[in-house]
Amino acid sequence: MKPIYGIYAASSTANLPHDQTVVLRHKCRMAMAIDILVDRIAQRVDALGITERDASIKATGKPDALRYIRVRRAMPSADRLAAIAKALETTPEWLLGQAPGATSDSPVVVGAADGDGAVSLKRINLGFAMGDGSNLDDYIEEGTFEFDPNTLRSLTHSPWHRLLIAHGVGDSMQPTLLDSDMLLIDTLQARLNMSDRIWAIALFGAGAVKRLRPAAGGKVEIISDNSLHDKQLVDAEDVQIIGRVVWSGRRH
User: Fold this and answer.
1) Is the pLDDT assigned to residue 178 strictly greater than 90?
2) Which CATH architecture has domain 119-249?
């Protein structure tokens, strides 16, 4: 017997009675679906910058409902799943890793966005703004970039028109980000509700990519990963958040 997703199964189902084989395969599918569900819940909780407990209360009124799913490996009812999806600002299908219209007892193992085709994301130049930098329209658009939709779905569940491509400039975020690294910016995440994440911002009218940390007295700490660059403490009103950097890539 071998464990499969926490279920002990024979190394081969060839010698099992048909009804036992069907039950075993169903259990394995359900275990895989729960694995996907737990992972997707964690992704949305992280993206929203809330705790599992807060999300659980928002969805069900109970503080440990999501923990119960994660620890006990329990698949919620359709009504509860819908409530969880609503609280996490997504859909039940996405939480289950399914394409629209798929059934809950048959987890989809192909990409959720297969067949959608490449997504064209607007590419901007953070280094040049035609205004004070507080509005996305201030930045020069440099064309588009074709991005794989399945990869986007794994990084963020924000609408694609709220995503931007930009490039890092300078050495202030080394070694995390290098000069000319490609950055994926989620503009739907424009509220400083998570410390030490990397954000695309306009600081005193100039575009920048920095870590941000809320500070006392209505201040924000501007942090560069490169130790050669000093931290800055500025008034929150001087920082305009364009969006959160949710992915970066580079050529080798």
Assistant:
1) no
2) Ribbon (2.10)
